[in-house]
Amino acid sequence: KQWYQRRVRGNKLGQSITAAKRSIIATTFSRICIAAPGMLMTPVIMEQLEKRPAFKNMSKLKSCLLQTALVGSFLLAAVPFGCALFAQTQSIAVDDLEDDLKRSILEKDSSLKIVYYNKGL
Questions:
Q1: 8 vs 98: CA distance, rounded Å
Q2: How far apart are CA 112 and CA 118, in angstroms?
Q3: Which helix (H) or strand (E) is 88 found in, with range?
Q4: Fewer CB within 10 Å: C terminus or N terminus of the chain?
Q5: d(CA 71, CA 45)
Q6: Residue 19, C-beta contacts closer than 8 angstroms, at least 6 positions apart
Q7: pLDDT the model gives residue 115
Q8: Whole-prediction pTM value?
Q9: Res 111 pLDDT > 60
């Protein structure tokens, strides 16, 4: 079980498994988006290049280096995109939190409707 700190105006309000689950889902999706272009496009590009006469007699080492360069190029573009998909600080409605945490937050400040947490990497 993973727990994340809840914060409003820098005050720690408690820990929530619900927020941790949302963070894990968002992080997993963004990491898939980071890896997918290189994993999907590199084989397609290599197949097209290997049909050309200049690349037909390419050594395995050169092919490996070219594939590594292609994946690296895709990562250079995909990492900022993947990291920007979800903000580092996420919000969650107090009503969506666990009952005990919701109760303790509302005891401290009954006007709170939304709290914020750091989703991590």
A1: 17
A2: 18
A3: none
A4: N
A5: 11
A6: 4, 6, 90, 92, 97, 117
A7: 87
A8: 0.74
A9: yes
